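Working notes for the structural subgroup meeting. M.R. asked for a predicted model of this chain before we commit to crystallization trials. I am recording the input and output together here so anyone reviewing the notebook later can reproduce the run.

Input as submitted:
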Amino acid sequence: MMDNIVKVAELYFSYGHRNVLNGLDFEVPRGQITCLMGQNGCGKTTLTDVITGVNRFRSGEVLLDGCDVRKMRPVDIAKKAAYVPQLHTVTFPYTVRDMVLMGRTAYAGVFGGPKKEDELIAEEAMAKTGILEYADRPYSNLSGGEIKLVLLARALGQSAELIVMDEPTAHLDLRNELKFLEIAADIVKNDGKTILISTHSPSHAFLFERMGAATRAALMKNGKIYASGAPDEVITGESVSEVFGVNAEIIEYTASDGTKEKTISLKDTAK
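Returned structure, recorded in token form:
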């Protein structure tokens, strides 16, 4: 088995004449959470869309579980990589159960509906994300935090090893953000999943480590990976200042339980 479920080499992508990814190299190790960070417009979403087969790239190589994504059918990509979007709305009053069962679409025949196995997998996914009690409620009536958990349950129901998340905690309050991140860390630690999460918060990498999940950090700038590796090595005051264009420093402190923790302190003057 390959150590990296995603391998990207010399990747170039453009929208018309605007270059977005410029010879990018990137890897996502199995069984870990990789936090992909950078300013708006640096290419994070473009990269994740390339990995999941949404964007067709100009040149380079993108391997998903050892397979060239350009040669894979959408249904085959769906069996290897699930996706949790930043925003998602529906107008039809699907139930939560219906939404989670949609994660099983790749395993259904052309005209096939969900089988008993699909229903059991969906039930398990809802239980793991704590939304089983909402199963028969209309998806459109849920709160923002509940919707994000439904989308995570749908991704789990897809039975893909890799789950790609695009700013999944955007617009959530602190309680729901922490709940979502705890569940994400848990499915990596206990279920052997791999997560690639695009986020604006470098603190998320430190948080996942504190939750006991194997964690990797990658900073993007100008369509390339600026630095990648262990969070302690990658997320420094200097690198955060350089990538995000702010004055920052990493503060180390001792938590109430005696563990050593890190957080990012932003100064009042932008670079």
